[in-house]
Amino acid sequence: MKKILVLNGPNLNLLGKREPSVYGNHSFDSYFEELGKKFSEVELHYYQSNVEGELINKLHEVGFTFDGVVLNAGAYTHTSVAIADAIKAIETPVIEVHISNVYAREQFRHKSFLAPNVKGIITGFGLQSYDLAIQSFL
Q1: Measuring CA to CA, which residue among 104, 105, 87 is closest to residue 96?
Q2: What is the pLDDT of residue 103?
Q3: What burial class does residue 47 get, using C-beta atoms within 10 Å of its C-beta: 0-12 exposed, 13-18 middle, 19+ buried?
Q4: What is the pTM of this model?
Q5: For the chain, how are helix, strand and coil distributed in percent, rounded to 5?
Q6: Hey, which of 68, 74, 86, 117 would disulfide with 9, CB 3.0 to 4.6 Å?
C-alpha cells in the first residue's frame, strides 16, 4: 500500500472560512475525509502547520519512507529557500499544489522557489488539485 502525505502550509487551516471566493467554503478536514474514502487503497496522512520549520521537519521525517508528498506550502512557495532545499534533500517525490490559479493572482505569486525541486505542479483546480496530485502517484 502506497503511503502519501498531504502537507499544508500557512493559513490553510482556515479553509472554508478564509476568502471563500478564492478558496471555497469546504474545510480541509472534511475534504481529507473524502480523499480517504476515494483513495482507500492508499495510506493517506495529513499534516498542517503555519510554521516553516515544522514543515521542513515533516518533509525530513517522511522523505525517505513515503511514496509521495502532496505539498501546498501556501505563501512559503514564494519565499522559502529552506523548504525548497528540504525537498531537494529528500528522496520522496513531491507534487506542489495550489487551490487557486497563482498565475491569475498577484505578480509575486508567479515565482515558486519549490518548482525546480518538485516532480510537478498542479494549480487552479480548487481542492481537486490534491485529488489530481494523489492520482499522479498511483
Answers
A1: 87
A2: 75
A3: middle
A4: 0.93
A5: 45, 20, 35
A6: 74
Go through the domains of the chain in sequence order and give each one's CATH number. Answer: 2-137 (3.40.50.9100)
Query: How many Å apart are CA 13 and CA 15, to the nearest integer?
Result: 6
Q: What positions carry a catalytic annotation?
A: 23, 98
Tens digit of each residue's pLDDT (9 = 90 or more) over 50-90: 999 999 999 999 999 999 999 999 999 999 999 999 999 99
Phi, psi of 27 (to 5 degrees): -70, 150
pLDDT tens-digit profile of 102-117? 877 777 777 899 999 9
**Lookup: cell for 50:** 503555519
Cell of 54: 515544522
3-state helix/strand/coil string of 74-132? HHHHHCCHHHHHHHHHCCCCEEEEECCCHHHCCHHHHCCCCHHHCCEEEECCCCHHHHH
